[in-house]
Amino acid sequence: MTIRAAVFLDKGGTGKTTTTAHLGRALTELGHEGILIDLAGKQSDLAKQFGLYEPQQKAIENDEDFPNLSSVFDDDFGKLVKMNGADAILDRLIYETNEGMDLIPAHPGLDSVDGELNNVEDREDRYGRLKAFVDEYLEGRYDFILIDLPGLSRIVPYNGVWAAENIIAPVEMGSYEFGQLKQLAEDIDKYRSNWDIDAELTMVIPNKFERGTTLADDYMNRYQEEFNGAMAPNPVAKSQDIRNATEAGKTIFELEEPSATASRAKEAYLANARELVDRIGGKR
Ligand SMILES: Nc1ncnc2c1ncn2[C@@H]1O[C@H](COP(=O)(O)OP(=O)(O)OP(=O)(O)O)[C@@H](O)[C@H]1O
Ligand SMILES: [Mg+2]
């Protein structure tokens, strides 16, 4: 069975995209084959993370960008597959990164999807389109699927929650962030009861963690107390290398001489990836 998780928190900049990319790479290091899906919007940050932004922009300029991730949400996606065959469609949607995993990048067309799905009455049809796609075309082809979600409570991110059910939340140490996570946990309870799906806060990953500071220690204790079972085994260190690597279109796994903080972050991603497989694999 394919392990699925969506990286979500209703706040910008806590490290959702970074976490998706690096956990994906860590799972790859551990021998799993996977794919990342970028639902986080038009900046196409995951494509940038793997140096695929330029080729994607070129495809858009040359009108070679159809079908794309937004097509998956179309009423006519099924027809499109019937006409062209699944392989041809997947070939267009899926990019290969040079770090081992595949990627379905974001697309500007995703912007209008929320508006269109807003008119769909049937709940499962409205929120379950990505899940239908994943069930039909990706399940079984990959060992894992990680979905990068925008920090917004809207229909497209909810599609990510329906498709993945397991939610990973990267958090920083601070009262605002703590509040955001509590809100997310409450929201997940609501998804479970209102939508009758198995949504779960599977892993909370403290990110940009600065060891030995009182702030970090205090908040780690608060997070541990409140989210005990969901906490990741290792926090991810704050590291300038992570920023720089991202700017350079790669993960820190590609650095030849990682700094001490980057090495610690790498180990943390690997430990967290192992634990993720245990938590999700064990549930199925
Ligand atoms: N552990 C870390 N150490 C240092 N910088 C980090 C770390 N994690 C993420 N960053 C940096 O923080 C910034 C925000 O991270 P990222 O883009 O992953 O957040 P996000 O939650 O996806 O944001 P958005 O809500 O805008 O999509 C980026 O510049 C990234 O390189
Ligand atoms: Mg992001």
UniProtKB/TrEMBL annotation:
InterPro entries: AAA_dom (IPR025669), DNA_Partitioning_ATPase (IPR050678), P-loop_NTPase (IPR027417). Coiled coil: none annotated. It holds the Pfam family AAA_31. SUPFAM superfamilies: P-loop containing nucleoside triphosphate hydrolases (SSF52540). Residues 6-194 form the AAA domain. This is ParA family protein. It comes from Halonotius pteroides.
